[in-house]
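Supplementary notes (optional reading)

For those who missed the lab, this is the record we used. Protein: Pyridine nucleotide-disulfide oxidoreductase. Length: 433 residues.
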Amino acid sequence: MTSARYDVIIIGTGPAGLGAAFHLSDLNPSLSILMIDREKICSGGLLNDCKQNYTYPTGFAEENWTRAEAERLLPLVEEKLQPTIKEKQNLEIYRKRAQRIGVTLLDIRQAHVGTDRSRLLIDRMMSELTARGVTIVLGKEVTDVFEHESGAGITIGEAERVYGNNVIVAPGRKGFSFLQQIMERLKIAYVDNHVDIGVRIETTLENYPIVRDYYDPKFFFPDGVRTFCTNSGHARVIIEKYQDFSLVNGHALSEEQTANNLVNFALLKTIGLKDPVRSGQQMAVYLGRLAYEIGGGKPLMQRVGDFRMGKRSNAETFNDDLYSAFRPTCPVTAGDLGLAVPAKIMRHIWGAMKKLDTIIPGILHPSTIMYYPEIKMYANKPAFNDEHFRVCEHIFMVGDGAGTSRGITGAWASGIRAAEGIVGLRQTTQREP
């Protein structure tokens, strides 16, 4: 570390952390700021795919945001990320089809960078922050956050301590467990009773042609199911590895790359838990481990044709398919989702797929693949002390892992709100006699 003490320490270099760092240096360039991340490159949704939504409520946790507050900050997010907004067409046709069967299609301003170009965006932002005097430390893991007599600080590894006036904790969804440990040790009240569980669909472009008109269509179905994170062009399904299980996700390359004519997107169901099962994270870990065991150390996949017939998929299903030469882009285990997905969740997701096939005929083609599990663990909801996401006098928690957002732009805006709180606190302190 280049300093024994900083005005602000930011844990995490994803969108929430970046939003805080930029806004802090905008409001007060003289602040000493440390950003630290266990990853060796800026992490979060910016690195993989980098899809951005600029219309409320997409990407925002509505219990923490009003439309007016989100719309106040979204232009500031856009100013820094400098997106190229995707054009849309023919939405009214899809909307009318959806409305007839009780489905809602949102009209969202969107941008997409692509995994192959996301590092260029990250490098630009990190270089700008460095030029502003922000200290950036990558590849070092924060293991604790603590309060001291005049502020807050962090522990790196086993014993190294760095002190600050304020700490912003923004580790993203993968930092879910870390956040819970900090909240429990500091006795910060929180709830963790929601989790999003679902499948990732992979099919051909001709089976889901809406992406030619609307890059990432946002459908909301009955029973709490929605589409999420649609990828097309050169699109692939990927594995996200956790400590003792794996999940699936999707991403796409930029328009500069040759298309593979595939589309993937998630269908997620939001689960609200009540006693005695109160932890969304515990449920997510249990389901992830179950699928991991059934899949022999990998997630599962099944063709729609096999699922409809009530039989498992196998290697031959994917290599000698009679309906399509389309091969899976993710090396997971062919099997039976019915053995791993809770029945109620699968029933609601399958109902949403049938409705979606009514709106866009083709998604239930026998060759379509369902990958499982895709789980979003961003249901930590700390008891915030104010609108700036303060949890202790000098500690703030923001981003997807802290339940203030559900995507890049909402996370960035959350960082801005924390920055405003810190600068306001600093000004108040300086005015006191």
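If you only remember one thing from this example: The mean pLDDT is 92.
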